[in-house]
Amino acid sequence: MKDFLFLFRADYSSYAKRSPEALQSITKKWMDWIGSIAAQNKLIDRGNRLENDGKVIKPNNIVTDGPYCEIKESLGGYTLIKAETIDEAVTLAKGCPVYEIGGSVEVREISKM
Amino acid sequence: MQSATELIPHLFRTEYSKIVAVLCAHFGIDHIETAEDIASDTFLAATELWGLKGAPENPAAWLYTVAKNKTKNYLKRNTLFTGKIIPEIKQTAPVNTEIDLSEAGIADSLLAMIFTICDPVIATEAQIALALNLLCGFGIQEIATAFLTNKDTIYKRLQRAKEKLKEARINIAIPGEAVLPQRIASVLITLYLLFNEGYYSVSGAHPLKRECCTEAMRLTLLLLENERTNLPAANALMALMCFHASRFEARADQSGDLVLYNEQDISLWDQSLIEKGVSYLNQAAQGSALTKYHLEAGIAYWHTHPGDSKEKWEAILQLYNQLLMLEYSPVAALNRTYALAKANGPEAALIEAEKLNLQDNHFYFVLLGTLYTNSDEDKALHCFEQAYCLARSAADKQLIEKKIHLLSIQK
After folding, report:
1. Of A50, A62, B323, B360, whose CB neighbour count within 10 A is largest?
2. How far apart are CA B363 and CA A113, in angstroms?
3. Is any Cβ of chain A less than 8 angstroms from the Cβ of B317?
């Protein structure tokens, strides 16, 4: 088994416009999806959701409010899973509800040095 | 009034462990056998005397007095012995011959013994056996019956566990603040397993099995009665046990066979235990800790609501999702998929079930069979037959046979 990182990207500003019912339904889909991975004993760590605000630090101590104004999609969270191959990890990622809001999942194998 | 022959087994169950705990706490782990000997001698004296003269007015107090005197005599003889034979050994502190069999003294000693027995230096199955022996007054034969094994195995298991405790020089005490959270976690696991040993046993509704459950509840209650150990996780565990125990009367029929949840007579569910469970669950909600006991208690709470509702199964599904995120187990994976069928429909659940990869688990095929019933009866039957081949216990085989039979007459 190898470890993989799922990175979720989406235009999370659209979240704010949704009704509480719609948000609840999205939360249920996320829980069911991660629950499904966990039920297959392939979840390592459900990870965390990230706040929209952040800072980016660049050489010469240049601090900016993040690249969020430039691109619509931002990193909204991450989850750690295990799978035999990257193809299996991709199959697991296919059920993610992030696509419903036009987002994406980046699948990366964790390097074990 | 009860006769001595009825009274003594009952008192043995309730008082033996108290005397052993107080004496162990007094003498230290090196003298665990001395504590057991004095407690046994006390009951032997009771059996001899009460048989002739009848039981005293306050039998427990009588036992405590005799145990105290026997301890004093033992210490006297022992100091005489060590004083004469090995005079170079000096007592650093005067020997305290007064043992504390007050209510508070007993509660503290029992709690200290729970932590001692649940010390991670000994294996979990040995912890459970030792707890039954020293804290619940189960005899070796009884433990062997409860574990479906023989006396020899249990005897050796207990001896090895005691040796390990001595080698590790375990201090019989409630752990200090710094290590308490970690130590209480292993206590809760042992009590949880002790309860499950009784509740989910393969040998059916043997009375000893039910006693495992009530003893686990009694010991958990001891944790709740001390303010240092009255923690949310312990309350959650107690809530879980109350909800499960509320169905004791309903889950076995007159011949002792298991009655499945859906087929139980709801009027037999113990409402007062359910109410107690709810109150412990409210206590458990204090603080931010969310343990598997919280989640399992939540699931058990919803099961105290009879019938099917969308709300019930959606809540159970989400609790199983969270439980699996915390800790994987095949049972939780199967139950989650069942809840998914109830909440999102059998088609969605079948897709998920196929991913579970539990090909050697008979409950997996029971689940598949259940999900295929109504849509594809041939497949359902095939799954139940596979489950029947994989099942090992007679009770499980019998339940699966019933399902196959029901399906065959429907066809």
Report:
1. B323
2. 40
3. yes
Distance from CA of A103 to the nearest CA of B (A): 23
Average pLDDT in chain B: 88
Residue owning tokens 């007459």? B409
Could A28 and B344 be called an inter-chain contact, meaning their C-beta atoms sit closer than 8 Å?
Answer: no
Q: pLDDT confidence of B93, banded at 50, 70, 90?
A: very low
Under an 8 A CB cutoff, do A32 and B337 touch? Answer: no
Nearest CA in chain A to B355: A40
> B47-73 b/e with 16+ CB inside 10 Å = b?
eeebeeeebeeebeebbbebbbebbee
Q: How many CB atoms lie within 10 A of CB B411?
A: 7
Q: What is the pLDDT of residues B13-37, one digit of tens each?
A: 889 999 999 999 888 888 888 999 9
The SS3 of residue B202 is: coil
In the structure encoding, which two tokens stand for residue A51, read together? 């706040």
Among the partner residues B318, B352, B357, nearest to A31 by beta-carbon distance: B318
Helix (H) / strand (E) containing B407? helix B394-410
Q: Of B63, B66, B69, B74, whose CA–CA distance to B13 is shortest?
A: B63
Interface probe for A, chosen from B310, B321, B322 (most Cβ of A below 10 Å), is B321
Closest by CA position to A37, among listed A105, A111, A101, A113 = A105
Q: What is the pTM of this model?
A: 0.87
Q: Which residue has the tokens 């006769």?
A: B3
Least CA distance to A80: which residue of chain B? B325
Report the alpha-carbon distance of residue A64 to residue B98 in Å, rounded.
73
pLDDT tens-digit series, residues A27-83: 999 999 999 999 999 999 999 998 888 888 989 998 888 765 456 778 889 999 999
Look up residue B151 and give its two tokens. 């006396």
Question: Would the CB atoms of B324 and A31 count as touching at under 8 Å?
Answer: no
A36 with B355: Cβ contact below 8 A: yes
Residue B353 at interface with chain A, using a CB cutoff of 8 Å: no
Distance from CA of B242 to the nearest CA of A (A): 27
Q: Is A1 on the interface with B (CB under 8 A)?
A: no
Cβ atoms of B308 and B342 within 8 Å: the answer is yes
Contact A34/B at CB under 8 A: yes
User: Per-residue pLDDT averaged across B385-402, rounded?
Assistant: 88
Distance CA(B25)–CA(B71), nearest Å, equals: 13
Distance CA B297, CA B277 (A): 8
- In terms of Cβ atoms closer than 10 Å to its own Cβ (0-12, 13-18, 19+), residue B98 is exposed
